[in-house]
């Protein structure tokens, strides 16, 4: 989109308050965090060295990447299915899908996390029901572990994963699908060989958004992980508020931000920003 | 590549289609011969594309039956009909190379890798895309994309090739080139071609027969010269090209044709006056009328005044008004037009009896 000079000046002016807010509330404090990472408790690269050698920090990084990867696969797959219904279903199906996508946005992340605890705990609905129909004799451990974290995070992230996919599916030329069928391809084959590859940019965008979001999750893993599957954000919190080790906490934050920044840069090499909404 | 006997013969029997209260196609009965090049011609919304989509199996008719080589295929889904189709805008697979696009229908049919390779290679050569096999559609020009679409639709030797306004996105010179190419492909493959267009010159140039549609109805079907020279209705006459319409009175049958009175002069027609009696419209194409200083006795002619001229290069288009106020356009040699305009503008318009035809007065 290209506008006239005054259009662009106008747009810049309209965006200025938000930009100013972001600079004051995020960028400026973050510079302070960067400073801590190099200066606390003593100036130098000591905290980054400790970060590399500390097995606890490493295991949390590995767990975070693993959980983020699994959550991404689960969320994008589920989001793909619901987006197909939302974009290509019958009018009734569309309304239902839209409802399922929008409702989670109205419920706070905290409420949802406790909701999952109520469902998945040993005496929660799922276990009670499975026991009552005689499917299991002992309750399954569904919460306060990685499984619970993955369920809660995927539930939170599916609606976010929907939008890049919807954008890709909406811009797809219907005639290409007709052409595939006219050339003899079954509906199933058309879906896998034509529809899915043509929504590739949406899948990449959706996966990247989900993955990046997952890396910084705090509340959901803290509640559903029950302290047993700590992720990076929770580790940073512990380092800053519980063992006053501000330098290490700051260094982990910086590494996380740099890593996410690099991922975003990679994303925008393959996907244009407007394809994500 | 294609055995002539493989081309399909299609029968449409009383096909109709309604979208809600909109009648897109009404009681269409049409036979499409084996290996013929049939053009469906009409303005947008006339039902021609709906009929093509019904032939392809993408749209289910509301009533009527469709037969291919005697088999009822009305309820057969698109993927089982084996009709090649070229879409408006080509509808190539954007994530596949030229080669992969053309190979797609063969892969779906589970052909062996070696057969796919040789047939794709042959097709690439035939449509002149050698050297572009590995490119993606986005890297090709409009004409090249068109060739890929044709190759992809023909590579599996379909019994019928359906084309939906395939040239609408191409510029004029490329259009001419692609039209010639398509005629050649039709002759080489011997397949039945059904071609949709709203461009009457394209229809006349390409087809063995033209079917003219309007408001969901098939108005007339025939060889290009038949529909052009002997249109059955006013709509067909006007849609196929410029035409002059003169009111004619007292039409009655005569020896080998009909007679009537036009602008107070007796005129002769070679066409039969079966459907038309009394008041009618006499229609004559601009290129069939000439300018003369005088109309001889017994010759068809009316007096007119030249009002304007448009120089077209090879000829001049001359606008005239008759004594009774009818507007007439003729296409004449440049010097004739110049003379007509300089000579006090009053001239005679003449035409051979076999070039005028009668249409019912009013209506379509």
Description:
The complex is a heterodimer of chains A (277) and B (364). Chain A has 13 helices and no strands. With 277 residues, chain A is mostly helical. Chain A has helices spanning 5-39, 46-53, 55-88, 91-102, 109-120, 125-132, 146-170, 174-182, 187-198, 200-215, 219-224, 232-242, 246-270. In chain A, helix 2 crosses helix 13 (246-270), helix 7 runs antiparallel to helix 10 (200-215) and helix 8 (174-182) runs antiparallel to helix 9. The two termini of chain A are 15 Å apart. Chain B has helices at residues 48-56, 98-108, 113-126, 142-154, 172-189, 200-206, 224-229, 234-239, 334-342, and strands spanning 10-19, 22-32, 37-41, 63-68, 71-72, 83-86, 160-164, 192-197, 209-214, 217-222, 244-254, 257-262, 265-269, 278-284, 290-292, 301-311, 316-322, 327-332, 346-350, 357-360. In chain B, the strands form 4 sheets. Chain B has a 6-stranded mixed sheet, with helices on both faces. Chain B has a 5-stranded antiparallel sheet with strand order 13-12-11-14-20, with no helix packed on it. In chain B, a hairpin with a 2-residue loop joins strand 9 and strand 10 (217-222). In chain B, helix 2 (98-108) crosses helix 3 (113-126) and helix 3 packs across helix 4. Chain B is elongated and about 75 Å long. Chain B starts with 9 loop residues before the first strand and ends with a strand.
